[in-house]
Amino acid sequence: MRVITGAKRKCGYKKAGGVYLVSEPVEKGILPIWVSLHPPVPCADVIHRGPVLVDADIILARKPEEEWFVGSSKDHREKLRADQWSLEKFGMTTTLRLQLGECAKLSGVDEAMEHLIRAVRFNKHHVFAAIEGLTFAEVHEVPRVGLFYATLIEELTFYMEDRKAEHLVKMAAQVWRIAENAPPKLLPEIVPNLMRLLVTLGLTLDAIAMRERYL
Asked: Across all residues in the chain, what is the average pLDDT?
């Protein structure tokens, strides 16, 4: 084992239990700009504006990237994953989903999902007419919402193939995401069509909540 004697530093002394990056003595005591690992450890994570807490031992052991994060960074990532799941399933955060419309005052995500799956219904003529209204309003051409419109159509296609209610719930989620991301000046034109689709899907309370939130 190599013993390294810590010299006095202008920023204090090393503390027991801490992790420190130490280099060989160099001019002016500056650490190397780049410390390489061979072979390198790949990281697919996005660039962060602030510090991220990780476990260096886990990284050096080359374990999966999702296991690197610790403390508040791990908690933050778990919340982001939960929020992303909620956006995909509900079109909004779990907190908001349990505060408005069909799921107001329900106790959790499982109950909310079960309620929506029981509540949704499908009438081909009415659903297609509502979507035609969105198409006529050129929602698919609106910046920031075109992707949600495309996903709405995709979920409709899936439903026509297997008749699973979860696709109708996901359609409703895309309706909410369109409303949330549409430019404010277009809301008076778009929201009535979105409300019509929600009513057609059997989610009348959601349609009322959308009117109150966006009009």
From this structure: 88
